[in-house]
Fold this sequence. Notes:
Structural class of chain A: alpha+beta
Oligomer: heterodimer
Number of strands of chain B: 5
Amino acid sequence: xxxxxxxxxxxxxxxxxxxxxxxxxxxxxxxxxxxxxxxxxxxxxxxxxxxxxxxxxxxxxxxxxxxxxxxxxxxxxxxxxxxxxxxxxxxxxxxxxxxxxxxxxxxxxxxxxxxxxxxxxxxxxxxxxxxxxxxxxxxxxxxxxxxxxxxxxxxxxxxxxxxxxxxxxxxxxxxxxxxxxxxxxxxxxxxxxxxxxxxxxxxxxxxxxxxxxxxxxxxxxxxxxxxxxxxxxxxxxxxxxxxxxxxxxxxxxxxxxxxxxxxxxxxxxxxxxxxxxxxxxxxxxxxxxxxxxxxxxxxxxxxxxxxxxxxxxxxxxxxxxxxxxxxxxxxxxxxxxxxxxxxxxxxxxxxxxxxxxxxxxxxxxxxxxxxxxxxxxxxxxxxxxxxxxxxxxxxxxxxxxxxxxxxxxxxxxxxxxxxxxxxxxxxxxxxxxxxxxxxxxxxxxxxxxxxxxxxxxxxxxxxxxxxxxxxxxxxxxxxxxxxxxxxxxxxxxxxxxxxxxxxxxxxxxxxxxxxxxxxxxxxxxxxxxxxxxxxxxxxxxxxxxxxxxxxxxxxxxxxxxxxxxxxxxxxxxxxxxxxxxxxxxxxxxxx
Amino acid sequence: xxxxxxxxxxxxxxxxxxxxxxxxxxxxxxxxxxxxxxxxxxxxxxxxxxxxxxxxxxxxxxxxxxxxxxxxxxxxxxx
Lengths: 591, 79
């Protein structure tokens, strides 16, 4: 059973219908993008009644597939204006899938803008909307506590919550999902989807999977064999088996800095003199000293275990172990080299329900204006705290880097399609520049993680300082990522998949044994291509052209130290990245 | 000649002074020394690694020169 559940926020009606036959191969991002393409007018107001917020576990959600518990969240983005998929770990994907829900679609808008709703999805299939107006303005942590008060003591459930930033309809608002210890610390971060949730009056969703078994497979024995094969690949590859579990994602800080691509002080340099203080190695040492956890999965079934918890000086939980992106955005990009200051900022933006990448980039732009100094963690925290009360500054910052940069007259604003660039400078790492420029998502590193061959020597090797081969590399990775996101697989499985043929084979063996449909390498990539085609066409309908597939002008003109290079991939090469779209659109019968 | 050598993640424990840490150490090397000879001198395990000289990827048969910075990482990645 894979159903679509629709929740109409205007009428309160909740309905359930089977997934259309033509979408049997779709899960996760393939499903959210297909659904938004089909049902949301491209010219609609992202915060209006016609936009839809879609939550979809991957095709392998609710199973024991290693690292198969990612959740896709889709809508028209208030930040980019295009079709958005934000991807998040945590426990919600498995819980939804075990309930037989392939897609949860939030539609319409309540007449009363002051209304706050909790959507309850019980393990026995009961579904209801409850009015919780008293929860207005609560941070994510307080909301999670409030939900706990409503649940039986022996329940097993996941939460999806929206912080005050989303309620205020801020374009940097993100959606929080609970982790295995019930902390609301995993984020569908990018593109302002918290604002879409806020526009619909939806404060929180609770999904119980108490007593629910794994989803059944077409061929259980073949599935279990593929699980073993895949888990073995993930745990033996040096990156997913050793580096990520030992140091977390922030293991990247030193190597990206060494390569000269670690954006510092609003992308004005590629190396940060304070990197050692905020590196993954230092973070691990400090966390162990404080009694924090340095190795767990963000969702059940993860065998990589790159998550951790950050503890304050007194040994108390503060926030999730800050990811590489968060340490960079709230750290190096702001010139801050103190992990406690970064942890405090991370806790604040998480509780408010904001995208940490966008907010770090926003603070860096704000610092670049001279209003506060680079490196001043206390001033940065004070500025972020203004979002709680909705001061003029708070509301400006909460709209992201572009709005903030324009408001304060900053010359260099690092955005593509209105979304802030993540933690790799595209000048000395040109492959990621191609992804930033051409992704349907706006600037996004996960959309086609060219860092692999550019810096890490994973999946081959390409000279990061040169344009040759970068467009083809990014195209292949963007398609493959669309596929992984459709299956609900963590992006980090890509490292072994790129290097080990048996890891790639295991994915279609898992898919075949689970669905009973025939899968092979071509079928996997076709799902990736179809996903990107829905997104690309939606964006075209929304008014995007090739001119939007470019980096800001200064990346082509201002040399970045230490390599003193600019971005040199040609427009023609950038425009080749989506050359497969017309043929795929024709095969789908869509325009 | 003097070459700065930095080792990251678990490789830091291989620094000859036994002190670990990711700070650079000045190695006194003979003219014409190549990266592979330094790797052997340090006793790094025979495992994949990523090597930079002066912030650029470098093959292990590359010759080192006075003032170079040699940085060696185990395979790492994230996002």
